[in-house]
Amino acid sequence: MYNSDKVIPGIIIFIIFFTIPMWLNLGGAKAIPRPELPKEEKNCVESKEYMRAYHMKLLLKWRNMAIREGKRTFVGADGKTYLISLQNTCMKCHKSNEKFCDRCHKFVATHPDCWHCHIAPEEVAKLRRWQNGNR
Amino acid sequence: MAIDRRKFLKIAGLSFLFGTGVFSLEEFVLCRGDEVLAQVVGEGKKGKVRWAMAIDTRRLTEEDCKRIIEACHRAHNVPDIPEPTKAVRWIWEDTFEHAFPELAEEDPSEELRNRKYLLLCNHCENPVCVRVCPVQATFQRPDGIVVQDYHRCIGCKFCMTACPYGSRSYNFFHPKEYLKHVNPEYPARTMGVVEKCIFCYERLDQGKLPYCVEAAKGKIYFGNIYDPEAEITRVIKENLVLVRKPQLGTKPMVFYIV
User: Fold this and answer.
1) Does the ipTM surpass 0.90?
2) B183 vs A14: CA distance, rounded Å
3) Which residue of A64, A67, A123 to mutate against B (max B Cβ within 10 Å)?
4) pTM for the complete prediction?
5) Would residue A14 count as lying in a domain?
6) In this complex, do A67 and B149 lie within 8 Å of one another by their Cβ atoms?
7) Residue A109: inside a domain, yes or no?
8) What percent of chain B has pLDDT over 70?
9) Do B206 and A88 make contact, defined as CB atoms within 8 angstroms?
C-alpha cells in the first residue's frame, strides 16, 4: 500500500472526528425528560397513551375543526364534551409550555411554533412585566 | 357587412361612454335601504345564514367609537403600534372622504361630512382577498365570514393589495411586544402574517354577539341578512343606507345608516 503512513492515520482521524458526539456523550446519559403534569386534573381529553403518541395529530385535527370547519365541540374518550381551543381548554390545565411541552420537544429537538402566537397563562404575567419595564 | 376601423372605434367609444354613464348613475344615486339591500343581497337564500352589520352613524359619538375600538383591540390582542404606516387595526374610525371617496364629490351635507365612520372588514359576499390568496389562508365560511387562518398565511400581502377597503394589516413587528393589555383567552399573531377583523366568529360559534356590537350598546345592528324578519334587515330597509364602494361588485356586508 502506498503512503500507508499517511492514509491510515487519516482514516483514523476521520472516524474519530465523525464519532465525536458519541464519545463526548459516553457515560453521561441524560435523564429522560419529565414534563410537569397538571396537579388538579388527572384525565385528559383522550387516554394517556393516545395523548403521548398522537397529541400532535389531535392538535392538528382541532386546529382544522375550529378554524376551517367552524366546529368547536369535541367528544372525548370519556364521553365528555370539550370546547376546541388551545388556550381555553388545553392550557387551563397545562399552564406552561416551558414546563410541559418544551421539556420533551427540546429533548427530541423538535420546535413547534405554537407559542409564536398563542399565549400560555404563565406567559401573560411575563408579557405584562415586560411591558411595564419598557414603557 | 365589413366594418372599418374608424367606424369600430366610434361605436366602441360611444358604447363605453353610454355604458359607464348609466352604471355610474345607477350605482351612486342609490341610497334607499331597500334598494341597496336588493342590490347587495338580491333574493337571498332562504334557510342560509349570512352575517351582516349595520352601523348607525347618526347616533355614534366619538366616545362610542373609541370605546368600540378599544373593546375589539383589547379582546383580540391587537398590538398598539405608534407608526401609522405599520399599525395594525381591525376596526378604526375615519372621515367621510376616506370611507366613501366616490360620494365625497357629490357634495354631501356638512353634517354628514363631519361624522366619524367606523371602518372594518366588510366580509364581502364576493371577497377579492380570498380569490388572490395563493395558499388559501383566507377563506369564506358558509355563513359568509371571511376568515384569516394565521397557521397558513405566508405573508405575501396579495390580499392587502386586493382589498379595496384597506381592512388588512401586516405584522411588521413582533406583535406580542406591542400589546398594551394581554387577553389570555385569545392568541396574538406572529411577525409576518396578515390580520383583520373576523366578525368575532369564535363568539358567534358560541352564540354570542361580536365585541363591537356589544360595546356599541344598540348603535350597531348585527344579524342574518337572509332572514327577512331579522332586525338588521328591517333597519336597513327602513333607512337611508350606504355601503362602501358598491361599484366594485364585492357586495360588502357592512351597511352604514346615514
Assistant:
1) no
2) 55
3) A67
4) 0.80
5) no
6) yes
7) yes
8) 95
9) no
Q: Which of B177, B184, B201 sits opposite A87 (nearest CB)?
A: B184
Confidence of residue B209 (pLDDT cuts 50, 70, 90): very high
CB A87 within 8 A of CB B186: yes
* Domain around A69: 41-93
Q: Tell me the shortest Cα–Cα distance from B79 to chain A, in angstroms.
A: 12
The answer to whether residues A83 and A126 belong to one domain is: no
- B182 to A70: CB separation less than 8 angstroms, yes or no: no
The length of chain A in residues reads 135
Distance from CA of A89 to the nearest CA of B (A): 10
Q: Give the distance from CA B112 to its chain's centroid.
A: 19
| CA-to-CA separations, B93 to B57, B90, B99, in angstroms, rounded | 11, 10, 9
CA distance B151 to chain A (A): 9
Q: Hey, is the C-beta of B150 within 8 angstroms of any chain A C-beta? A: yes
- C-alpha span between B87 and B83 (Å, rounded): 6
Total tally of structural domains belonging to chain A? 2
| Rounded Cα distance, A107 and B57, in Å | 57
Chain B 27-46, residues with CB within 8 Å of chain A CB atoms: none
Amino acid at B123: H
CATH classification number, B31-257, choose in 3.40.50.20, 3.40.50.300, 3.30.70.20, 3.90.1580.10 = 3.30.70.20
Instruction: Give the pLDDT confidence of B48-102 residue by residue, as tens digits.
Output: 899 999 999 999 999 999 999 999 999 999 999 999 899 999 999 999 999 998 8
Flag whether residue B179 sits within 8 Å of chain A, measured between CB atoms. yes
The C-alpha atoms of residue A81 and residue A75 are separated, in whole angstroms, by 4
